[in-house]
Amino acid sequence: MKLYLLLTQIGFGLLLSLAVNAIEKPTPPKANKQFSTEQACVEPIDIMRRYHGHFLKHHRDDTMHSGVRTTQHSLVECINCHVTADDHGNYPSVKDGSEHFCRSCHNYAAVTIDCFQCHASKPEKK
Amino acid sequence: MSPTQNRRDFLKKTATVAGLTTIAPGILFYNVSQAKPDGEAVTSKVRWGMLIDTTKCATGCTDCVDACTKEHGLNDNVSAEVAPQWIRKVGLRDKQTGKETSLPMLCQHCEEPPCVDVCPTGASFKRADGIVLVDKHTCIGCRYCMMACPYKARSFIHETLENQKPHSPRGKGTVESCTFCVHKVDKGEQPACVEACSNADHNAIIFGDIKDPESEISKKLAEVSSTALRADMKLNPGVRYQGI
After folding, report:
1. Are B183 and B70 in the same domain?
2. Which chain B residue is nearest to residue A75, measuring alpha carbons?
3. What is the complex's ipTM, to 2 decimals?
Protein backbone atom coordinates (compact mmCIF):
# COMPACT_ATOMS: atom_id res chain seq x y z
CA MET A 1 0.00 0.00 0.00
CA LYS A 2 2.77 2.39 0.98
CA LEU A 3 4.61 1.60 -2.21
CA TYR A 4 1.47 2.41 -4.21
CA LEU A 5 1.19 5.82 -2.52
CA LEU A 6 4.84 6.56 -3.14
CA LEU A 7 4.49 5.68 -6.82
CA THR A 8 1.45 7.96 -7.17
CA GLN A 9 3.36 10.77 -5.55
CA ILE A 10 6.29 10.34 -7.90
CA GLY A 11 3.84 10.24 -10.78
CA PHE A 12 2.24 13.54 -9.73
CA GLY A 13 5.63 15.08 -9.20
CA LEU A 14 6.67 14.15 -12.71
CA LEU A 15 3.45 15.51 -14.18
CA LEU A 16 3.87 18.75 -12.27
CA SER A 17 7.43 19.27 -13.40
CA LEU A 18 6.40 18.54 -16.99
CA ALA A 19 3.58 21.10 -16.77
CA VAL A 20 5.88 23.75 -15.33
CA ASN A 21 8.45 23.11 -18.03
CA ALA A 22 5.79 23.38 -20.74
CA ILE A 23 4.93 27.00 -19.86
CA GLU A 24 7.59 29.35 -21.03
CA LYS A 25 9.00 31.81 -18.51
CA PRO A 26 8.13 35.37 -19.52
CA THR A 27 10.87 37.47 -21.04
CA PRO A 28 9.64 41.03 -20.66
CA PRO A 29 11.40 43.58 -22.87
CA LYS A 30 14.21 45.70 -21.46
CA ALA A 31 13.42 49.12 -20.02
CA ASN A 32 14.50 52.33 -21.72
CA LYS A 33 16.78 53.54 -18.99
CA GLN A 34 18.13 52.91 -15.51
CA PHE A 35 16.56 54.73 -12.55
CA SER A 36 20.01 55.58 -11.18
CA THR A 37 23.53 54.31 -11.53
CA GLU A 38 23.11 52.00 -8.51
CA GLN A 39 19.53 50.95 -9.11
CA ALA A 40 17.83 49.59 -12.23
CA CYS A 41 14.21 50.33 -11.32
CA VAL A 42 12.52 52.82 -9.00
CA GLU A 43 12.85 50.31 -6.12
CA PRO A 44 15.13 47.24 -5.86
CA ILE A 45 14.03 44.63 -8.42
CA ASP A 46 12.90 41.95 -5.93
CA ILE A 47 10.77 44.53 -4.12
CA MET A 48 9.30 45.75 -7.40
CA ARG A 49 8.42 42.21 -8.47
CA ARG A 50 6.43 41.60 -5.31
CA TYR A 51 5.07 45.02 -4.40
CA HIS A 52 4.64 47.05 -7.62
CA GLY A 53 0.86 46.70 -7.25
CA HIS A 54 0.96 48.24 -3.79
CA PHE A 55 3.14 51.12 -4.95
CA LEU A 56 0.80 51.85 -7.85
CA LYS A 57 -2.33 51.68 -5.73
CA HIS A 58 -0.89 53.94 -3.05
CA HIS A 59 0.33 56.45 -5.60
CA ARG A 60 -2.96 56.38 -7.50
CA ASP A 61 -4.90 57.56 -4.43
CA ASP A 62 -2.31 60.24 -3.63
CA THR A 63 -2.48 61.58 -7.17
CA MET A 64 -6.23 61.31 -7.61
CA HIS A 65 -7.26 62.81 -4.27
CA SER A 66 -4.35 65.03 -3.22
CA GLY A 67 -2.83 66.02 -6.54
CA VAL A 68 0.59 64.54 -5.72
CA ARG A 69 2.38 64.42 -9.07
CA THR A 70 5.70 62.76 -8.26
CA THR A 71 6.83 60.35 -10.95
CA GLN A 72 8.68 57.63 -9.03
CA HIS A 73 5.64 55.36 -8.58
CA SER A 74 3.41 56.68 -11.33
CA LEU A 75 1.88 54.29 -13.85
CA VAL A 76 2.51 56.72 -16.71
CA GLU A 77 6.24 56.64 -15.96
CA CYS A 78 6.24 52.81 -15.75
CA ILE A 79 4.77 52.77 -19.24
CA ASN A 80 7.11 55.46 -20.58
CA CYS A 81 10.14 53.46 -19.49
CA HIS A 82 9.05 49.84 -19.86
CA VAL A 83 6.93 49.85 -23.02
CA THR A 84 9.42 50.17 -25.83
CA ALA A 85 8.88 50.58 -29.55
CA ASP A 86 10.14 48.12 -32.18
CA ASP A 87 12.33 49.11 -35.14
CA HIS A 88 9.34 50.58 -36.97
CA GLY A 89 8.39 52.73 -33.98
CA ASN A 90 5.32 50.61 -33.12
CA TYR A 91 4.45 49.76 -29.54
CA PRO A 92 3.29 46.25 -28.58
CA SER A 93 -0.45 45.90 -27.94
CA VAL A 94 -1.50 45.20 -24.38
CA LYS A 95 -4.32 42.99 -25.68
CA ASP A 96 -2.65 40.05 -27.30
CA GLY A 97 1.05 40.74 -27.26
CA SER A 98 3.16 38.84 -24.82
CA GLU A 99 5.66 41.51 -25.86
CA HIS A 100 3.95 44.11 -23.69
CA PHE A 101 5.92 44.52 -20.47
CA CYS A 102 2.95 44.26 -18.09
CA ARG A 103 1.07 41.66 -20.08
CA SER A 104 3.96 39.24 -20.50
CA CYS A 105 4.27 38.52 -16.77
CA HIS A 106 0.59 38.82 -15.97
CA ASN A 107 -0.22 36.23 -18.62
CA TYR A 108 2.31 33.89 -17.05
CA ALA A 109 0.92 34.47 -13.55
CA ALA A 110 -2.68 34.27 -14.84
CA VAL A 111 -3.57 37.56 -13.18
CA THR A 112 -6.02 39.76 -15.04
CA ILE A 113 -5.17 43.46 -15.05
CA ASP A 114 -7.88 46.02 -15.66
CA CYS A 115 -5.61 49.09 -15.61
CA PHE A 116 -5.50 49.44 -19.37
CA GLN A 117 -9.25 49.54 -19.90
CA CYS A 118 -8.86 53.19 -18.91
CA HIS A 119 -5.12 53.94 -18.74
CA ALA A 120 -2.87 54.34 -21.75
CA SER A 121 -0.83 51.17 -22.31
CA LYS A 122 1.86 52.88 -24.37
CA PRO A 123 3.79 56.14 -24.25
CA GLU A 124 2.20 59.12 -25.95
CA LYS A 125 3.69 59.83 -29.35
CA LYS A 126 5.34 63.20 -29.24
CA MET B 1 18.21 87.67 21.10
CA SER B 2 21.41 86.41 22.66
CA PRO B 3 22.36 88.00 25.98
CA THR B 4 25.59 89.40 24.48
CA GLN B 5 23.80 91.16 21.60
CA ASN B 6 23.12 94.82 22.23
CA ARG B 7 19.98 96.68 21.33
CA ARG B 8 21.47 98.49 18.33
CA ASP B 9 22.69 95.25 16.65
CA PHE B 10 19.33 93.61 17.17
CA LEU B 11 17.49 96.50 15.54
CA LYS B 12 19.89 96.54 12.57
CA LYS B 13 19.45 92.84 11.91
CA THR B 14 15.67 92.86 12.19
CA ALA B 15 15.46 95.84 9.86
CA THR B 16 17.50 93.97 7.20
CA VAL B 17 15.36 90.85 7.47
CA ALA B 18 12.15 92.89 7.29
CA GLY B 19 13.50 94.72 4.25
CA LEU B 20 14.22 91.46 2.43
CA THR B 21 10.77 90.03 3.06
CA THR B 22 8.98 93.17 1.92
CA ILE B 23 10.77 93.34 -1.43
CA ALA B 24 9.79 89.83 -2.42
CA PRO B 25 6.23 89.11 -1.27
CA GLY B 26 4.41 89.97 -4.50
CA ILE B 27 6.63 87.65 -6.51
CA LEU B 28 6.72 84.94 -3.85
CA PHE B 29 2.95 84.76 -3.45
CA TYR B 30 2.48 84.62 -7.20
CA ASN B 31 4.84 81.63 -7.48
CA VAL B 32 3.22 79.77 -4.62
CA SER B 33 -0.28 80.07 -6.06
CA GLN B 34 0.82 79.18 -9.59
CA ALA B 35 2.84 75.98 -9.30
CA LYS B 36 2.86 73.69 -6.32
CA PRO B 37 5.78 71.27 -5.82
CA ASP B 38 5.02 67.84 -7.37
CA GLY B 39 5.23 65.98 -4.08
CA GLU B 40 2.95 68.29 -2.14
CA ALA B 41 -0.75 67.71 -1.59
CA VAL B 42 -3.25 70.35 -2.66
CA THR B 43 -4.66 72.51 0.12
CA SER B 44 -7.82 74.45 0.75
CA LYS B 45 -5.79 77.67 0.78
CA VAL B 46 -6.45 77.69 -2.96
CA ARG B 47 -9.81 77.48 -4.68
CA TRP B 48 -9.77 77.26 -8.44
CA GLY B 49 -12.45 79.19 -10.23
CA MET B 50 -13.45 80.51 -13.60
CA LEU B 51 -15.05 83.73 -14.79
CA ILE B 52 -16.68 83.62 -18.21
CA ASP B 53 -17.44 86.89 -19.95
CA THR B 54 -20.45 86.04 -22.14
CA THR B 55 -20.22 89.40 -23.92
CA LYS B 56 -16.97 88.18 -25.49
CA CYS B 57 -18.28 84.67 -26.24
CA ALA B 58 -19.39 84.50 -29.88
CA THR B 59 -22.38 82.43 -31.04
CA GLY B 60 -21.11 79.52 -33.14
CA CYS B 61 -17.55 79.66 -31.77
CA THR B 62 -16.53 76.28 -30.36
CA ASP B 63 -12.82 76.86 -29.75
CA CYS B 64 -13.08 75.88 -26.06
CA VAL B 65 -15.14 72.77 -26.81
CA ASP B 66 -12.72 71.65 -29.53
CA ALA B 67 -9.72 72.20 -27.27
CA CYS B 68 -11.32 70.10 -24.53
CA THR B 69 -12.20 67.32 -26.94
CA LYS B 70 -8.62 67.27 -28.24
CA GLU B 71 -6.96 67.52 -24.83
CA HIS B 72 -8.85 64.57 -23.38
CA GLY B 73 -9.42 62.60 -26.59
CA LEU B 74 -13.18 62.69 -25.98
CA ASN B 75 -14.40 61.87 -29.48
CA ASP B 76 -11.84 59.24 -30.45
CA ASN B 77 -13.71 56.25 -31.93
CA VAL B 78 -17.01 57.03 -30.19
CA SER B 79 -20.48 57.03 -31.76
CA ALA B 80 -21.77 60.58 -32.08
CA GLU B 81 -24.97 59.92 -30.12
CA VAL B 82 -23.10 58.86 -26.99
CA ALA B 83 -20.09 61.16 -27.30
CA PRO B 84 -19.28 62.70 -23.92
CA GLN B 85 -19.53 66.45 -23.39
CA TRP B 86 -17.34 67.98 -20.73
CA ILE B 87 -18.02 71.46 -22.04
CA ARG B 88 -20.77 72.51 -24.44
CA LYS B 89 -22.05 75.73 -25.93
CA VAL B 90 -25.48 76.82 -24.76
CA GLY B 91 -27.57 79.53 -26.43
CA LEU B 92 -29.91 81.78 -24.43
CA ARG B 93 -32.61 84.03 -25.85
CA ASP B 94 -34.48 86.68 -23.95
CA LYS B 95 -38.10 86.25 -25.11
CA GLN B 96 -38.97 89.88 -24.34
CA THR B 97 -36.07 91.59 -26.06
CA GLY B 98 -34.81 88.89 -28.41
CA LYS B 99 -31.26 89.31 -27.15
CA GLU B 100 -29.22 86.21 -27.75
CA THR B 101 -26.34 85.06 -25.56
CA SER B 102 -23.96 82.17 -26.08
CA LEU B 103 -21.99 80.64 -23.26
CA PRO B 104 -19.89 77.57 -22.52
CA MET B 105 -21.43 75.21 -19.98
CA LEU B 106 -19.21 72.92 -17.96
CA CYS B 107 -18.91 71.39 -14.51
CA GLN B 108 -19.37 74.35 -12.17
CA HIS B 109 -17.07 72.87 -9.51
CA CYS B 110 -19.53 73.71 -6.73
CA GLU B 111 -18.50 74.30 -3.16
CA GLU B 112 -21.48 72.11 -2.16
CA PRO B 113 -21.58 69.64 -5.05
CA PRO B 114 -24.83 67.62 -5.23
CA CYS B 115 -23.01 64.94 -7.25
CA VAL B 116 -20.78 64.28 -4.23
CA ASP B 117 -23.78 64.18 -1.88
CA VAL B 118 -25.55 61.44 -3.83
CA CYS B 119 -22.56 59.25 -4.77
CA PRO B 120 -23.02 55.86 -3.07
CA THR B 121 -19.36 54.82 -3.30
CA GLY B 122 -17.46 58.04 -2.63
CA ALA B 123 -16.20 58.11 -6.20
CA SER B 124 -17.50 61.65 -6.71
CA PHE B 125 -15.42 63.91 -4.54
CA LYS B 126 -14.20 67.45 -4.14
CA ARG B 127 -10.47 68.04 -3.92
CA ALA B 128 -9.16 70.37 -1.21
CA ASP B 129 -8.62 73.07 -3.84
CA GLY B 130 -12.27 72.94 -4.94
CA ILE B 131 -11.95 70.80 -8.07
CA VAL B 132 -14.79 68.25 -8.29
CA LEU B 133 -13.68 64.93 -9.77
CA VAL B 134 -14.77 61.33 -10.28
CA ASP B 135 -12.43 58.65 -8.94
CA LYS B 136 -13.10 56.10 -11.66
CA HIS B 137 -11.40 53.40 -9.60
CA THR B 138 -14.44 53.46 -7.31
CA CYS B 139 -17.17 54.62 -9.72
CA ILE B 140 -19.74 51.89 -10.33
CA GLY B 141 -21.52 53.77 -13.12
CA CYS B 142 -24.84 54.17 -11.30
CA ARG B 143 -25.29 57.67 -12.72
CA TYR B 144 -26.95 59.14 -9.61
CA CYS B 145 -24.57 62.09 -9.96
CA MET B 146 -25.81 62.75 -13.48
CA MET B 147 -29.35 62.97 -12.11
CA ALA B 148 -28.28 65.21 -9.23
CA CYS B 149 -26.27 67.73 -11.27
CA PRO B 150 -28.47 70.74 -12.06
CA TYR B 151 -26.07 71.78 -14.83
CA LYS B 152 -26.20 68.50 -16.78
CA ALA B 153 -22.43 68.57 -16.72
CA ARG B 154 -21.65 64.86 -16.54
CA SER B 155 -21.41 62.14 -19.18
CA PHE B 156 -21.50 58.37 -19.00
CA ILE B 157 -19.18 56.26 -21.10
CA HIS B 158 -21.19 53.61 -22.93
CA GLU B 159 -18.56 52.09 -25.18
CA THR B 160 -15.16 50.47 -24.84
CA LEU B 161 -12.48 53.08 -25.35
CA GLU B 162 -9.02 52.69 -26.80
CA ASN B 163 -5.91 54.83 -27.07
CA GLN B 164 -6.75 57.09 -24.17
CA LYS B 165 -4.40 59.92 -23.33
CA PRO B 166 -1.88 59.09 -20.58
CA HIS B 167 -2.92 62.21 -18.62
CA SER B 168 -6.64 61.51 -18.97
CA PRO B 169 -7.58 57.91 -18.16
CA ARG B 170 -11.19 57.21 -19.16
CA GLY B 171 -13.17 54.02 -19.55
CA LYS B 172 -16.47 52.28 -20.19
CA GLY B 173 -18.98 52.10 -17.37
CA THR B 174 -17.88 55.21 -15.50
CA VAL B 175 -19.17 58.76 -15.29
CA GLU B 176 -16.90 61.67 -16.14
CA SER B 177 -16.97 65.43 -16.37
CA CYS B 178 -14.74 68.48 -16.67
CA THR B 179 -11.67 68.14 -14.44
CA PHE B 180 -10.60 71.79 -14.83
CA CYS B 181 -7.68 70.05 -16.62
CA VAL B 182 -6.36 69.08 -13.21
CA HIS B 183 -3.23 67.52 -14.79
CA LYS B 184 -2.32 70.93 -16.22
CA VAL B 185 -3.41 72.98 -13.21
CA ASP B 186 -1.18 70.88 -10.93
CA LYS B 187 1.75 71.88 -13.17
CA GLY B 188 0.82 75.56 -12.92
CA GLU B 189 -0.76 75.68 -16.36
CA GLN B 190 -4.23 76.82 -17.45
CA PRO B 191 -7.06 74.50 -18.54
CA ALA B 192 -7.15 73.68 -22.26
CA CYS B 193 -10.38 75.65 -22.92
CA VAL B 194 -8.95 78.79 -21.31
CA GLU B 195 -5.74 78.48 -23.33
CA ALA B 196 -7.67 77.99 -26.56
CA CYS B 197 -9.93 80.98 -25.87
CA SER B 198 -7.02 83.30 -25.21
CA ASN B 199 -4.91 81.88 -28.07
CA ALA B 200 -7.75 82.73 -30.45
CA ASP B 201 -7.73 86.24 -28.89
CA HIS B 202 -11.29 86.00 -27.53
CA ASN B 203 -10.14 86.20 -23.89
CA ALA B 204 -13.63 85.37 -22.65
CA ILE B 205 -12.47 83.04 -19.85
CA ILE B 206 -10.32 83.87 -16.83
CA PHE B 207 -9.10 81.01 -14.68
CA GLY B 208 -7.39 81.35 -11.32
CA ASP B 209 -7.39 81.15 -7.56
CA ILE B 210 -10.47 82.90 -6.20
CA LYS B 211 -9.12 82.77 -2.64
CA ASP B 212 -6.06 84.84 -3.58
CA PRO B 213 -7.16 88.51 -3.52
CA GLU B 214 -4.22 89.40 -5.80
CA SER B 215 -5.15 87.00 -8.62
CA GLU B 216 -6.55 88.36 -11.88
CA ILE B 217 -9.83 86.52 -11.42
CA SER B 218 -10.37 87.81 -7.87
CA LYS B 219 -9.73 91.39 -8.93
CA LYS B 220 -12.15 91.03 -11.85
CA LEU B 221 -14.80 89.39 -9.66
CA ALA B 222 -14.53 92.29 -7.23
CA GLU B 223 -14.90 94.79 -10.04
CA VAL B 224 -17.65 93.47 -12.35
CA SER B 225 -21.06 91.98 -11.57
CA SER B 226 -21.15 88.25 -12.19
CA THR B 227 -23.78 85.55 -11.88
CA ALA B 228 -23.71 82.11 -10.33
CA LEU B 229 -26.02 79.83 -12.30
CA ARG B 230 -28.95 78.50 -10.27
CA ALA B 231 -27.82 80.61 -7.32
CA ASP B 232 -31.12 79.63 -5.65
CA MET B 233 -29.67 76.18 -4.97
CA LYS B 234 -26.87 77.70 -2.86
CA LEU B 235 -24.19 75.45 -4.36
CA ASN B 236 -21.67 78.30 -4.64
CA PRO B 237 -20.22 77.26 -8.01
CA GLY B 238 -16.58 77.99 -8.83
CA VAL B 239 -17.61 79.04 -12.34
CA ARG B 240 -19.29 82.41 -12.68
CA TYR B 241 -20.70 84.23 -15.68
CA GLN B 242 -20.50 87.89 -16.57
CA GLY B 243 -23.07 89.61 -18.80
CA ILE B 244 -26.12 87.38 -18.37
Report:
1. yes
2. B166
3. 0.81
